[in-house]
Amino acid sequence: MLPYVLRRLLSVAVTFFVVSLIIFLMMHSIPGGPFDANDMPVSAAVREKLMAQLGLDQPLHVQYLRYMWGVLHFDFGVPYQSPGETVIQLLSRAWVPSLVLGGLGVVIGAPLGILLGMAAALNRNTWIDYFASTVSTIGLTIPVFVTSMLLILVFAVWLNWLPASGWPQPERWILPIAAYAAIPMATYARYTRSAMLDTLSRPFVTVLRAKGLSENRIVFQHVLRNSAIPLVTVFLPMFIGTATGSIFVEAMFRVPGLGAYFVSSIEKRDYPLEMALMLMITFMYCIAYLLSDIVYALINPRIRMGGSE
Amino acid sequence: MTFVRKLAWGLATVTALTLPALAQTTVVAPFGTTTGTYMDYMKTVYDRGTGAELLQVPIATFDKEFELTPMAAESWSQSEDGLTWTFKLREGLVWSDGEPLTAEDYVFALQRAATSGYDFAWYWDFAGGIKGWKEVTEGTADVSTLGLEAVDDLTIEVTTTAPKPYFPSVTSLWYPVPKHKVDELGDDWALNVESIVSSGPFEIESWEKSNNAVVYTKSDTYTGPWQPTIDRLELDPTLAAPEVGLPAFLAGDADYSFLNTGQVPVATQRYPDGIRKNAVFATSYISFDLEAEPFDDVNVRRAFYYAIDREELTSTVLKDIAIPAGSILPPGYPGYNEEVVAQAVFDPERAKQFLADAGYANGEGFPDIEIWIRDEGGYNGAIIPAMAQYLQAEFREILGINMNIRALPGADWMDGLRNKRNNIFISPYEYDYLDPSNFYGIFYNGGRHGYFIPEYDALVAQADSESDWDTRVDLYAQAEQIMIDQGLIVPLVHPITIAVVSDQLGGEGSQPNALGFTPLDRLAHYFFTHMTKQ
């Protein structure tokens, strides 16, 4: 397994550099720069001075190499939008609310979805099954800003049970977490249902039943475990997608998180932050898929890591 | 008995101790934009920390009737030749760290602005006309040649290139910079709550950089006019979107909220006494590339001028959020001229005739065009996309012209406008200072749109330095007549913003002015120092 992991790590590194190059080129191919957004531009002389201060007067390849050299030393530069701190400091500050809310959303939503999916699979074509599919269809099709709006309307405005939005008091976390949880719950309900139905129809389940195993043991110890692969595949990428903050959820609930930076860094031509965010996401997805693959093997020993036969 | 008495005393003491804390009034307001770099208005306007202007005291500012009121200045005077203004500062003004606030802090603010890439630097040339400003910003002259001097601790002298009778109103955007802090920390003084000092009615308590929300408290050290009547002020840009602001307002988390069109009926029904309207001093207009086909033909531009039914536009798609614009100047703005406005009528026949005169009868042979709009939030975001679609249909129906719409991010739209990458735009503009020269200056000598119209420029230049008000207004009206005759722009609408305020909010700032409008945070210094909360 070790050679396999090493080979995968090497491919992560290659992916990382290819992505960094593409992002860098795309970023700089958008017209305008950090000093061109305002109604009346600064004078050419001043603009030149500012560009030189940020090193933007250098040829592109020099800028790229300089940035990547920094990245290798864990230095992502200083964000133009927040000159008082480094990109790393900004990320570690702004990521906390996103991680807490998005992370809890997935951590709460996924098990709920699994339970819902199991209930649906074990009670196929009953009202429970229909209920579960209705819930998951709604969860998957209604955009998160609509869900957020409905949650605010019902729980904050009509019932007055919870604050409408804000941070950091924990009672203000509940609604955004619920909004975040909707998608993992819906996704998991669907995946679990179909994976379980698939497994339940396998001959080995009949054998287990013939052996006289209790239904609970069959479901939890055998069926669920054998249905787990698709669930593992979805989990980490979903976690990363959600725990880096949704611009919609964070705007609706006034969360000072990471979500808005994904957009503002592009709008403001904040090159260091934009690169850092993209590289961070790339890196996390690469690692997530690697980990998922390793977990596959742990769950199901029949899956062999290529080359180790 | 003793126990009861003790208990009573204890309770009384506790109550007495907590009363001041309970009496603390905090106002939570939607204000600002969600990104901000420096808490320093004289370093950056477009990327400033929320409410940076409230931390400092301007030379002068406007009250809700748009009367200019001296703030840091006690008085001012103009020299005989009209070229030099002398401002006398009040005695006893200090920075929140105890250092005296001096004329030097104001002069330094502009000297730095002229040399270090201030994103609002153009204002001091365009509006202020300060001697040497252009040369210094372009790097061809030394900063010492600027027409600015701190004569002594309390006296500032400003020299302009031409007489600027309205210069005092320009100073409503002139804030001091703590030179002693910049000497110590550089521009970074304005990056952290610990090192930020203030000279105005509020001081800073905290600043959440991820969304640029701030908490201000009433200043202990400010001795100037307009002392705040509240203790704490939370300014939260994330509340500025009505979709977020209104639910927070309804749940009791905000003291007022702006409304979008869909929200107006609901809020009006629930809070009939809480609705406040404001005619923003702003105008949306169509601008052209005067040198590019097909808009290099004045007849085409005039056809557009007459092809728009502004009444229908503002009573249907823009109901409650805009009023018709017949001039670049909004109603209530100094110099507003009814005769100019009356010319902007909807006259489809005339529009068709102009288009035919240009050789495109019924739109035949007219190239497909694409109007560029700026993708943004706020009142413009509510108005412009809907308006663009209305115009698209109107031009199709009346002129037989195909017009596409393209929304671009701010930077790209500006790049397009400045470098003439397209030939037609919807351009919004909001006033910077209260004088007609502000709006006419947009088209002066190149200006925002690269228009060079010699006869217009001559009239505007003459009006700008004219000291007699009636003559000035007349000259501006003549200049606008040239704009109409040459179809330089097509005025479309002036935005109206609607807000709902809580019944706990009181004070002069929350009440309408003589025109029936409540400018709310458009006049931040006035509003936030003239509000009370129960």
Automatic annotation (TrEMBL), chain A:
Main location: membrane
Spans through the membrane: 9-30, 99-122, 134-161, 173-191, 231-255, 275-299
The name this protein goes by in its record: ABC transporter permease
Record bears the keyword Cell membrane: yes
Organism: Devosia geojensis
Mode of membrane association: Multi-pass membrane protein
Domain of life: Bacteria
Entry-linked InterPro entries: BPD_transp_1_N, MetI-like, MetI-like_sf
PROSITE patterns: ABC_TM1
An annotated GO cellular component: plasma membrane
Keywords: Cell membrane, Membrane, Transmembrane, Transmembrane helix, Transport
Key word Repressor present: no
Limits of the ABC transmembrane type-1 domain: 95-292
Family, as annotated: Belongs to the binding-protein-dependent transport system permease family.
Record GO biological process: transmembrane transport
Cellular location(s): Cell membrane
PANTHER family: INNER MEMBRANE ABC TRANSPORTER, OLIGOPEPTIDE TRANSPORT SYSTEM PERMEASE PROTEIN OPPB
From TrEMBL, chain B:
UniProt-recorded name of the protein: Solute-binding protein family 5 domain-containing protein
Gene Ontology CC terms, in alphabetical order: ATP-binding cassette (ABC) transporter complex; outer membrane-bounded periplasmic space
Domain Solute-binding protein family: 67-448
Subcellular location: Periplasm
Xref: InterPro entries: Peptide/Ni-bd, SBP_5, SBP_5_dom
Family the entry assigns: Belongs to the bacterial solute-binding protein 5 family.
Keyword tags: Signal, Transport
Originating species: Devosia geojensis
Keyword hit for Nucleotide-binding: no
Superkingdom of this protein's organism: Bacteria
GO molecular function, one term: peptide transmembrane transporter activity
Signal sequence residues: 1-23
Matches recorded under Gene3D superfamilies: Dipeptide-binding Protein, Domain 1, Dipeptide-binding Protein, Domain 3, Periplasmic binding protein-like II
GO biological process: peptide transport
